[in-house]
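Please decode residue identities from the backbone states below.
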């Protein structure tokens, strides 16, 4: 029986253009540590969009909290800020359209202090075969039974 996974990390920060790559690297390091290397690029791109929205729309006091959670089946990334202005899906693309394309689900919700924008990706725990005994290849047993002198 295996224990269920529930890994969680969060960071509070002021969003500046120079800081976004650093946050992306932090999230990528956690994903790699959890053996979710295939999700580093799409999660990083979607996170870039959410942080760019905070930088663009929240204003000078652009503090936010980025949370990363992996349950063993799904990775959820959320960005909470103190703005009450809810994001919109624009018909021209970009922004949340890109988040939608890079994720399995996404959404927004109001909070007492502002809002949260989140997205999820299906990310099942990687399976490893481990060290299993394999049957010898055909012909190997007969070769081992022959005396060493007969093989030369």
């Amino acid at each position: 029986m295996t224990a269920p996974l529930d890994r969680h990390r969060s960071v509070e920060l002021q969003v500046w253009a120079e800081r976004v790559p650093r946050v992306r690297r932090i999230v990528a390091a956690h994903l790699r540590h959890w053996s979710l290397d295939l999700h580093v690029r799409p999660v990083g791109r979607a996170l870039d969009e959410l942080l760019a929205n905070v930088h663009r729309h929240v204003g000078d006091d652009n503090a936010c909290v980025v949370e990363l959670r992996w349950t063993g089946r799904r990775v959820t990334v959320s960005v909470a800020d103190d703005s009450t202005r809810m994001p919109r899906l624009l018909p021209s693309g970009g922004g949340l359209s890109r988040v939608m394309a890079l994720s399995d689900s996404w959404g927004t919700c109001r909070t007492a202090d502002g809002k949260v924008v989140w997205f999820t990706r299906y990310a099942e725990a990687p399976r490893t075969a481990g060290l299993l005994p394999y049957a010898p290849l055909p012909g190997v047993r007969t070769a081992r039974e022959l005396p060493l002198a007969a093989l030369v």
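Observation: The chain has a mean pLDDT of 82.
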